Amino acid sequence: QVQLQQWGAGLLKPSETLSLTCAVYGGSFSGYYWSWIRQPPGKGLEWIGEINHSGSTNYNPSLKSRVTISVDTSKNQFSLKLSSVTAADTAVYYCARVMAAAKHKVYYYYYMDVWGKGTTVTVSS
Amino acid sequence: QSALTQPASVSGSPGQSITISCTGTSSDVGSYNLVSWYQQHPGKAPKLMIYEGSKRPSGVSNRFSGSKSGNTASLTISGLQAEDEADYYCCSYAGSVVFGGGTKLTVL
Questions:
Q1: Of B45, B48, B92, which is closest to A116 when you measure between CB atoms?
Q2: Do A60 and B102 make contact, defined as CB atoms within 8 angstroms?
Q3: Residues with Cβ within 8 Å of residue A81, at least 6 apart in sequence
């Protein structure tokens, strides 16, 4: 049973860099993409981006300029950095495993089947 | 990439059936088996309920079913139970992952 455990700083000041890490336990790390999703208070889900074990990334175009997702295969971990945060980045941040199949960049299915419990990040001066 | 369109809220009485719609485009919802549905209870992480449009993960009740017609996907919950009260999100992919705005299900 795959489990995701996530952690990181919960309180940031504007302009600082958000940093979160997600560790994968109980299953294979390679062969999947691993994703970050966030949810502002009282609002819906927003996909941030994803990475695979080789370090190949895809980002939400609206956040791409500020987001870096990296991977540490030796520890079965992947991390999120979001720079220059503002109050609008206040949210619960989730990590998740992606199940997907694609050929020539055309996806046939895509979903997130295992989720971390979430980390609350607050940006306030 | 625009968000998928869901009704803000739906409600039903115990035992009844409800359907939540999710409207997108031919590039996302209307393409292959790219729709998934997630249930989220307050303060909890989302839980996968339907994937590839109509498949249920192991452990998810068969009261939950998914379907698609054109560019609109639907989640149907039959035999409503109090524990089904939650927020539901659809999700698809078209160059980037996109979620619906979420639907709050109230069990009366």
A1: B45
A2: no
A3: A17, A18, A19, A67, A68, A69, A70
